[in-house]
């Protein structure tokens, strides 16, 4: 079964052709980062305009690279949410037009489910599993008993991890999005600043990163006021150590409690080298017979291939959308 998948929830315009939910025939990703960088974040109006300009070209390129035509397809899938409403609508309307013109079933996909299913493109998801979703807008521990059952057992009470990275990146003057740069700097530095590990020992699976962010910003401002030297690499390393320690310890605890077969990392922050290494080590040392899945770097950020992987479950279940499909910016799993 061939699915054409479309993703336009934020600042990547992407289209992919996926076979049987697991094989990538093409996965074209056009990033808009350069257009948003001078504003220090994603500007929704600019994002929508870029999606409009790019969408038909990217879809054509995805079909061309996969060497398929519309008549070869079994369905068209699109991200319906969560994301920026204007950005989502470009993808949703493109998908509806294709479904109508070529008489194809339409599949509406949740972007966060897509991030989890990115792993299905290189491995096989085995249930029950626990997924740590860490991205620009989400930080969640999601328990999945089967391929279409999602239960959030813990989440951030304030900032998402990626959001915290990008905010402190701005304070250190690195380009948007700061996550990748802070990660690189962290590897050159040491954990000398001892930032708070919020909620780490609390008896729940929730997270909080705004206190850590404030503590970081205060440290930088106080040092500037006193004209003290700051070691940016050590600051980055200290921030990352605090983030990783909290994420890993709570995730391992949840995996033990839920007795899962797999632990699945997902989302843009899954690209973080410190997190990947620490999670591998903790799973090896603390969890018996739990398989750890970590997506390859090229599938961590937003892409349409992951949407096609998630859509395949819905295709098998005849879970289709109709032409009233709309963008749903606040959609949850
Ligand atoms: P969501 O998926 O929650 O809707 P989003 O789609 O905007 O949000 P993603 O594209 O999944 O978010 O992830 C982008 C985030 O990942 C950014 O905040 C970025 O800084 C962060 N990120 C990317 N690489 C790294 C890294 N190596 N270390 C830390 N953060 C990273
Ligand atoms: Mg993005
Ligand atoms: Fe995302």
TrEMBL record:
- Give yes or no: UniProt keyword Acyltransferase: yes
Q: Which UniProt keywords apply?
A: Acyltransferase, Cytoplasm, Iron, Metal-binding, Transferase, tRNA processing
Residues noted as binding substrate in the record, renumbered to the chain: 133-137, 166, 179, 183, 272
**Localization, UniProt:** Cytoplasm
**Residues that bind Fe cation:** 111, 115, 302
CDD domains reported in the protein's UniProt record:
ASKHA_NBD_TsaD_bac
Q: Name one GO cellular component term.
A: cytoplasm
NCBIfam families per the UniProt record, alphabetical: gcp_kae1 (TIGR00329), T6A_TsaD_YgjD (TIGR03723)
**Which regions form coiled coils?**
none
Q: Which cofactor does it need?
A: Fe(2+)
Q: List each copy of the Gcp-like domain by range.
A: 23-308
Its biological purpose is as follows:
Required for the formation of a threonylcarbamoyl group on adenosine at position 37 (t(6)A37) in tRNAs that read codons beginning with adenine. Is involved in the transfer of the threonylcarbamoyl moiety of threonylcarbamoyl-AMP (TC-AMP) to the N6 group of A37, together with TsaE and TsaB. TsaD likely plays a direct catalytic role in this reaction.
Report a single Gene Ontology molecular function: tRNA N(6)-L-threonylcarbamoyladenine synthase activity
Q: What is its EC number?
A: 2.3.1.234
Q: What is its main location?
A: cytoplasm
As recorded in Swiss-Prot or TrEMBL, the protein's gene is named tsaD
Q: Which stretch is the leader sequence?
A: none
GO annotation terms (biological process): tRNA threonylcarbamoyladenosine modification
- Cofactor annotation comment: Binds 1 Fe(2+) ion per subunit.
The family line of this record is: Belongs to the KAE1 / TsaD family.
Is Zinc-finger there in the keyword field? no
Any idea what this protein is called?
Answer: tRNA N6-adenosine threonylcarbamoyltransferase
Superkingdom classification of source: Bacteria
Give the first-level EC class, as a single word.
transferase
């Amino acid at each position: 079964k061939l699915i054409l998948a479309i993703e336009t929830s934020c600042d990547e315009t992407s289209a992919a052709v996926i076979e049987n939910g697991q094989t990538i025939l093409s996965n074209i990703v056009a990033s808009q980062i350069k257009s948003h960088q001078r504003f220090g974040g994603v500007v929704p109006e600019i994002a929508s305009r870029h999606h409009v300009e790019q969408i038909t070209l990217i879809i054509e390129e995805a079909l061309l690279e996969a060497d398929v035509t519309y008549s070869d397809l079994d369905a068209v899938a699109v991200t319906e949410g969560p994301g920026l409403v204007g950005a989502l609508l470009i993808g949703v309307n493109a998908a509806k037009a294709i479904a109508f013109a070529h008489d194809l079933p339409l599949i509406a996909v949740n972007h966060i489910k897509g991030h989890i299913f990115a792993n299905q493109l290189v491995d096989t998801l085995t249930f029950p599993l626990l997924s740590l979703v860490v991205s620009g807008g989400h930080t969640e521990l999601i328990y999945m008993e089967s391929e279409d059952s999602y239960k959030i057992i813990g989440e951030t009470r304030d900032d998402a991890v990626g959001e915290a990275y990008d905010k402190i990146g701005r304070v250190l003057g690195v380009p948007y999005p700061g996550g990748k740069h802070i990660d690189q700097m962290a590897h050159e530095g040491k954990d000398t600043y001892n930032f708070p590990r919020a909620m780490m020992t609390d008896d729940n699976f929730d997270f909080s990163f705004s206190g850590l962010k404030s503590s970081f910003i205060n440290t930088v401002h106080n040092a500037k006021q006193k004209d003290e030297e700051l070691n940016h690499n050590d600051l980055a390393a200290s921030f990352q150590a605090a983030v990783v320690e909290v994420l890993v310890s709570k995730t391992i605890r949840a995996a033990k409690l839920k007795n899962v077969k797999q632990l699945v990392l997902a989302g843009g922050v899954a690209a973080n080298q410190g997190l990947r290494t620490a999670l591998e080590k903790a799973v090896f040392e603390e969890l018996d017979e739990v398989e750890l899945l970590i997506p390859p770097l090229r599938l961590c950020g937003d892409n349409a291939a992951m949407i096609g992987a998630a859509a395949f479950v819905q295709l098998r279940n005849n879970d289709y959308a109709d032409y009233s499909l709309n963008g749903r910016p606040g959609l949850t799993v």
